[in-house]
Amino acid sequence: MSKLTIVFGVLLIGVGITGYVETGSAHPTALIPTWIGLVLALAGALAIAPARRMLWMHIAVTVGLLGFLGTAKGAWDTYRLAHGATFEHPIAVEEKGATCLLCVIFVAFCVRSFIEARRARVLGA
Fold first, then answer.
1. Is the CB of residue 68 less than 8 Å from the CB of residue 100?
2. What's the number of domains the chain is made of?
3. Rounded to whole angstroms, how far apart are CA atoms 32 and 45?
4. How many whole angstroms separate alpha carbon 105 and alpha carbon 107?
């Protein structure tokens, strides 16, 4: 799961950098997914060590959940944009939608992994 966390971190970094470049490097808030991705990548790297895996994966899923909650409205706006609504900054709407999607998928993978780990501990005890 730690390697998957790094992958999602890199994807979010890519979303943030792409959004920043697409806005003409004029809007530094477009880099917010990059910061979320950096935290996820760092947590994933630190979770490779088995002794600290549980702590860092819980930190990572918390950051992913906060990323999802912070961009949830962006998912609805992305849907509206795809169906003809106009926005002042459509690139920002698309970036929020992509961040929301990546974060919710990451959280779902984490929850699934946590359930599997819990079952393995119960069966092994």
1. yes
2. 1
3. 20
4. 5
Residues 50/76, Cβ–Cβ less than 8 Å: no
CB within 8 Å of 81: residues ≥ 6 apart: 87, 90, 93, 94, 97
Identify the residue whose tokens are 């949830």. Answer: 72
Q: What is the model's pTM?
A: 0.90
Q: In which domain, by residue range, is 58 found? A: 2-124
Residues in the chain: 125
Token digits of residue 82: 């795809």
Per-residue model confidence as pLDDT tens digits over 99-117:
999 999 999 999 999 999 8
Contact (Cβ atoms closer than 8 angstroms) between residue 36 and residue 67: yes
Report which DSSP code applies to 49: S
**In whole angstroms, what is the distance from residue 124 CA to residue 108 CA?**
24
Q: How far apart are the first and last CA of the chain?
A: 22
Going from the C-alpha of 49 to that of each of 76, 79, 119, 120, the distances in angstroms are 38, 40, 21, 19
Token duo for residue 76: 């609805």
pLDDT per residue over 75-101, tens digit each? Answer: 899 999 999 889 888 898 999 999 999
